[in-house]
Amino acid sequence: MKAVIVNEDHSLSWGEVDHPKIGDHEVLIRISATAINRADLMQRKGFYPPPPGASEIMGLECAGEIVEVGAGCTRFMSGDKVCALLAGGGYSQYASAHEGSVLPIPDGLSDEQAAALPEVFATAWLNLFIEAGLKAGDKTIIHAGGSGVGTTAIQLCKAFGASSFVTVGSKDKLRACIELGASGGFNRHDGSFLETAKTFAGESGVDVILDPVGAGYLSDNLSLLGLGGRLVLIGLMGGIKAELDLAQMMMKRARIIGSTLRTRPVTEKAVVMAQLEEKVWPKIVNQEIKPIIEAVFPITGIADAHDLVASDTTTGKVILTVDH
Ligand SMILES: NC(=O)c1ccc[n+]([C@@H]2O[C@H](COP(=O)([O-])OP(=O)(O)OC[C@H]3O[C@@H](n4cnc5c(N)ncnc54)[C@H](OP(=O)(O)O)[C@@H]3O)[C@@H](O)[C@H]2O)c1
Hints:
This protein is of the alpha/beta class. Strands 3, 4, 5, 6, 7, 14 and 15 form a seven-stranded mixed β-sheet that branches. The protein is globular. The protein starts with a strand and ends with a strand. About 50% of the residues are buried. The site of NADP nicotinamide-adenine-dinucleotide phosphate has 27 residues, from α1, α3 and α4.
């Protein structure tokens, strides 16, 4: 089969690789569409190796058709149209996935739209609702609001009764985030977001912050959290090391939660996927929540697609279609 190969100089080519094998609790998916995540850009440069046992091929999600099922699988059959969360291997014609990481494509969605769902919906759901315990009436701050994860988090907050304030990198992204349901936001290129975010936070502060930026935002994040507030750290785009005001953290009874999805055991991922299917898939079917797609490329145009994501100008996902 064919897959995207990372060459020694980090350039990309579409070439022959070994066909994946499936385990007892895995299915084999004939991929029709996959999608880019920020982590792929790091993996390509050699900074984010796949977890042990995962495919070396980039790609954390896919949509397509099941063509083989392992002996221990109980839910899916060959011919089922699905989308799946992968620990790797999505940039190819076929991928294996644990059955618990696979969901049916929500009614009414194309394969391209379905490929936009698994990674960012699992990330946003896991971190907002399972890790941070978000509930109706809560106030949230979503950093990188225009990202794949951000555009999903905004919609989930709105659909489940929480309000959100975003930081973004352009006026257009801010407008898009407000259309998706954010109450307000700030362009990070206009200086510090702190004062504008304080107006949103009010006296009581915010309940939850979803932060892929890290060090550069830590101090401001902590000062925006209210009593019992939760800061979920999901990325380090703005640095790794920072000073922490422990007194502020203690007096607010705040929690800082570090979280990664990819390296979690399949049993934990299955819990996230089951909750998505039960609580979110119906809202996608009734179009209350939608996949946000910036652009669609054939997978042979992967280098241009990566350049587009790296430009920081995208809102939502960049999709790759896969020919056979
Ligand atoms: N922990 C996990 O399990 C997990 C899972 C999935 C994703 N993530 C993380 O979540 C983040 C979003 O992922 P994605 O795939 O949705 O990303 P994406 O769609 O590629 O969007 C990333 C956006 O982040 C903003 N950004 C870039 N550098 C920044 C910086 N130094 N400071 C502030 N903002 C910056 C840019 O938007 P603006 O210019 O508009 O700000 C960029 O478009 C990434 O950091 C990713 O690693 C974590």
